[in-house]
UniProtKB/TrEMBL annotation:
Keywords: DNA-binding, Metal-binding, Nucleus, Receptor, Transcription, Transcription regulation, Zinc, Zinc-finger. It comes from the Eukaryota. Belongs to the nuclear hormone receptor family. Residues 216-441 form the NR LBD domain. InterPro entries: HNF4-like_DBD, NHR-like_dom_sf, Nucl_hrmn_rcpt_lig-bd, Znf_hrmn_rcpt, Znf_NHR/GATA. It comes from Caenorhabditis elegans. Residues 48-126 form the Nuclear receptor domain. The gene is nhr-204. GO terms for cellular component: nucleus. One of its GO terms (biological process) is regulation of transcription by RNA polymerase II. It is found in: Nucleus. This is Nuclear Hormone Receptor family. One of its GO terms (molecular function) is zinc ion binding.
């Protein structure tokens, strides 16, 4: 957005006209010409010493009212941006207001007083037309014998790459705090929606964490953990867990879907593209989140937010499958992050890059373009961050962080393969809607 400063320069015609001595003496004797009317058609007056809005020192007639620069700027900003304010005191803040009194801080009443004093919004429109981008860079006005040169001025300079990266980091940090609050809150659904049902509502429920508050009784006591691991007393019916024990695997997958809804790019995708993206990335992102949670808690063991370690499997799952899943597959991401000494910022960028998977199967061409653009943004930001903090070793560090994606992809494939065998032994009455939509994808 460009604004323009007008600088008046004497034209060639005016210089030649004053070169005659006779004409110079005539001009000296001629009384100075004064303007009697302003552009609004109203006569010029002497500027009063007080602003008619706040009784401060007036600097001139602004929008047809003698006012100070502060009231002028306030009226202009409110008018251009169409701001709306409400007064909690019945619009009476300036009643009985006089010179020397403290200026009320109510912006609604201040704008009302500007209007009552006679400030004219048409004057702002005239300014905007004069400074619009369509105005030519140079204007020659022979009518007044002056040459007007219009100089472009940048209103808001573009942000540097470092500033843009900082903004992204702040946004991802804030989102991570919201996710942590959602994970730790009292929201504990007994059943979960299908993936199509979960992505149908564009509004994320991540904000429930702030409204519901933290789950009581965490970390869980040994007695509560023992109660949660007892066999189902009513086989063939849904298992009822203690109220502060969550069904973590499904809850983690739901958290990833709700996190994706907070990104602007997710709203631009079609419903089908959202389904395919979450189907392909939710498991990898949840694995990354669980792994980094363990790293943050300075352990190489699998740990839950409620203090539980790896939950023993139901008795119908063959032991050899669960041993492979718990001792090898689920530990891969944890060991990789520990070996890399992955920082919080690197983890947040990696999670965003992983979520914007433009290579996910079945996504439309338009969806791939949206995801590729978004992924490039976070990838460039990660590269800039590693270059800043690791110098010459930055590109190598950048490659190491991105290689974690390969680990997560192999981990996801092996999890799904093992789950196929586990499903063969699962009782028919056990229904896991969201889990099955994501885990049974080949």
């Amino acid at each position: 957005m460009l604004e323009y400063d007008q600088v008046e320069l004497p034209s060639c015609s005016s210089a030649s006209a004053t070169s005659s001595p006779a004409l110079e003496s005539f001009i000296e004797q001629k009384p100075p010409k004064t303007k009697s009317l302003r552009k609004s058609g109203k006569p010029y007056q002497f500027v009063p010493s007080a602003c008619q809005v706040c009784y401060g020192k007036a600097t001139g007639h602004h929008y047809d009212v003698a006012s100070c620069n502060g009231c002028k700027s306030f009226f202009r900003r409110v008018t251009i941006e169409k701001l709306k304010y409400r007064c909690s005191a019945g619009n009476a803040c300036y009643t009985n207001f006089g010179p020397g009194d403290p200026v009320p801080k109510c912006r609604a009443c201040r704008y009302k007083r500007c209007l009552e004093a006679g400030m004219n919004a048409l004057g702002i429109q005239s300014e905007l037309r004069k400074h619009s981008e369509n105005q030519p860079l140079e204007e020659n006005s022979s009518e007044f014998g002056k040459e007007i040169v219009v100089l472009p001025r940048i209103k808001e300079p573009p942000k540097s790459i470092e500033a843009q990266v900082t903004d992204l980091i702040n946004h991802l940090m804030h989102l991570d705090l919201k996710i942590t609050t959602f994970r730790d809150c009292t929201y504990n659904p007994m059943s979960f929606p299908t993936l199509k049902q979960a992505i149908k509502n564009e509004v994320s429920i991540i904000g429930l964490g702030d409204r519901l508050g933290p789950m009581p009784g965490w970390p869980l006591s040994p007695e509560t953990i023992e109660a949660s691991r007892k066999p189902n007393p009513n086989p063939g019916s849904p298992r009822i867990l203690p109220p502060n024990v969550k069904k973590w695997f499904s809850y983690d997958l739901l958290t990833v879907v709700e996190m994706a809804k907070t990104f602007d790019f997710f709203k631009k995708l079609s419903e089908n593209d959202r389904f395919f993206l979450c189907r392909d990335t939710s498991l990898m992102v949840s694995n990354l989140m669980r792994a980094y949670f363990s790293v943050e808690n300075k352990t190489d063991k699998f740990i839950r937010a409620d203090g539980q370690t790896f939950v023993p499997p139901p008795k119908w799952i063959p032991k050899e499958y669960m041993d492979n899943l718990s001792s090898d597959i689920m530990m891969r991401a944890i060991k990789t992050l520990i070996r890399l000494a992955c920082t919080k910022v690197e983890y947040l960028f990696l999670r965003a890059i992983l979520l914007c998977n433009s290579a996910a199967p079945d996504i439309s061409a338009s969806g791939r373009n949206i995801l590729s653009t978004e992924r490039a943004k976070y990838t460039v930001a990660l590269l800039n961050y590693t270059m800043t903090h690791h110098g010459a070793a930055g590109p190598g560090r950048f490659a190491e962080i991105l290689n974690v994606i390969d680990v997560l992809e192999r981990q996801q494939k092996d999890q799904r393969d093992v789950n196929v065998y586990i499903t063969l032994y699962r009782p028919k009455h056990v229904k896991l809607a969201l889990f099955d939509d994501i885990m049974l994808t080949c």
